[in-house]
Write a structure and sequence with these properties.
The chain is mainly alpha-helical and about 90 residues long. The protein has 2 helices and no strands. Belongs to the FliQ/MopD/SpaQ family.
């Protein structure tokens, strides 16, 4: 395995992490912004109002997006194993 193969594996790994965690992070960002906007409009500064909806949305997002995360990780592992098999002497 050459340095180019190592670079390819690292770049595929970083993209896989972004594709796997990105949707959950976007959900948390959108819910956090909506809650902050609601708190700014109503001047309700309840601490549990910021955490509970985020946790619920993240858990629901994980339940819904787990197959997508699995497919992304499976694609990475298939590519890496294929690279290892082709590069074997």
């Amino acid at each position: 395995m050459s340095e180019g193969d190592t670079y390819d594996i690292l770049s595929m790994t970083f993209l896989t992490v972004l594709y796997g965690s990105g949707p959950i992070m976007i959900l948390a960002l959108v819910v956090g912004l909506a809650i902050a906007f609601f708190q700014a409009l109503t001047q309700v500064q309840e601490m549990t109002l910021t955490f509970v909806p985020k946790i619920v949305v993240i858990m629901l997002g994980l339940v819904v997006l787990t197959p997508l995360m699995y497919l992304v990780l499976k694609r990475l592992s298939d590519q890496v194993f294929d690279m290892l098999i082709v590069g074997a002497p």
